[in-house]
Amino acid sequence: MPVCIVAPTEVVPGEKRVALVPEVVGRLVKSGLAVCVQAGAGEEAGVTDVDFVAAGARIVEKAKELYGGADLVLKVQPPTVAETKLLREGTVVVALMNASRSLDQVAAMRDRKVTGFALELVPRITRAQSMDALSSQATAAGYKAALIGAELSPRFLPMLTTAAGTIRPAKVLILGAGVAGLMAIATARRLGALVEAYDVRRAAGEQVRSLGAKFLELQINAEGAGGYARELTPEEKALESKMVSDAVSQADVVITTAAIPGRKSPVLVTKETVGRMKAGAVIIDLAAEGGGNCELTKPGETVVVQDVTIVGPLNLPSQTAFHASQMYARNLQAFLGLLLTKEGALVTDYSDEILAASLLVAGGSVRHKPTADLLAGAK
Ligand SMILES: NC(=O)c1ccc[n+]([C@@H]2O[C@H](COP(=O)([O-])OP(=O)(O)OC[C@H]3O[C@@H](n4cnc5c(N)ncnc54)[C@H](O)[C@@H]3O)[C@@H](O)[C@H]2O)c1
Question: What residue owns the CA closest to ligand 1's atom 2?
Fold first, then answer.
């Protein structure tokens, strides 16, 4: 019997993505696997049940039946406590678990003795690039952030030479030039804006310039372990604040993406800096989920302060659900290359570096030490 792979309808409010798309279902079915998709699971991503059936999936109406018959559950969001209760012991779940902010869900998986893999814990090594869901979803977020900026700004982004005279291009500033920031730069450039960007990692400068944007230089390098940013010293922070504040005050659209994994996002745009901004300027704070890079960001809300619109979106990838789902499903397919044997059975040996690093819960215990510590502290 091949394992039964299932993709449910996501139940978290505002989540429009789906873990599998017909293209990936087709490949899984072709390799002899059985795939069940919950009725309507792809609806909000622009994928119909008919598309899934054509790719070889079976449609299951009710969550209870779907989860109860599953060997392997593929999700976008971590399973809710109620969803986990529907699973059989030993079922494997792969999702973006967001473990430090989903402790109740992690505890439920532990108590139900399911095996949970967190895709965000996949190490960023070359072999795992095709499984890097953080990058694929950050790409979607960066793209959408630039479009929201263009939409909310009262200005044109490109330079225009018209019978009514010349229009100067808008200035877009990107703070944090990681995956999302680079995509925001590329998108704003395509719309014709003058783009500037800043990142504490000096290595980002070359990538920024290659996209046709100007890199703001601070004479420090804060590249830390694994290519991520380290925290800055107080002196470095003062220098950074002055440079960033001057650049922000000149910008028409500011997109902030600066995050430090596992920590609260650094504040790069203070209340005072917002006070220096032009009327009609827009800030899109992609770090809103981690508290925000702007002091005035309200996560999940759009606020207007002194004529500056500050957007604190949560789950931007969901707003480009079709392609965000497609990329995510491809990431999952690559991950399944490790999780399933050639014959289509689930592996039980998780010693592979990628599986070992992303294993969150198994056999009734939390295997990811930082999450286990958080759970122990939350008691
Ligand atoms: N497989 C791989 O090798 C792989 C995959 C993805 C990303 N990466 C690299 O990992 C790095 C981080 O990527 P990410 O997009 O996930 O990062 P992230 O989401 O953790 O952070 C976004 C950006 O914010 C920057 N930042 C942090 N604090 C800042 C501050 N105070 N001021 C300005 N900028 C600040 C970071 O340097 C980063 O570039 C990048 O170098 C990226 O190219 C490698």
Answer: 124
Last residue of one domain, picked from the residues 314, 335, 360: 314
Site residues for ligand 1, CB cut-off 6 Å: 124, 129, 132, 134-135, 138, 175-181, 198-201, 204, 227-229, 257-261, 266, 268
Q: Are 170 and 156 in contact (CB under 8 A)?
A: yes
pLDDT tens-digit readout, 316-344: 999 999 999 999 999 999 999 999 999 99
13 backbone φψ class: left, alpha, beta (φ>0; ψ -120 to 50):
beta
Are 73 and 46 members of one domain?
yes
> Do 343 and 308 lie in a common domain?
no
Dihedral (C-alpha) 229, 230, 235, 241: value to the nearest 10 degrees?
30
Rounded to the nearest angstrom, the distance between the alpha carbon of 131 and the centre of ligand 1 is 17
Amino acid type, 142: G
**28 CA → ligand 1 middle, Å:** 32
Of 149, 144, 141, the residue nearest 253 (C-alpha): 149
For residue 349, give the 3-state DSSP assignment.
Answer: coil
Whether residue 1 has pLDDT greater than 70: no
Number of helices (H), then strands (E), belonging to the chain: the values are 13, 17
User: 3-state DSSP call for residue 312?
Assistant: coil
C-alpha 197/C-alpha 192 separation (Å) is 15
Task: Give the lowest-confidence range in 59-73, 168-182, 218-232, 262-276.
Answer: 218-232
- The number of domains in the chain is 2
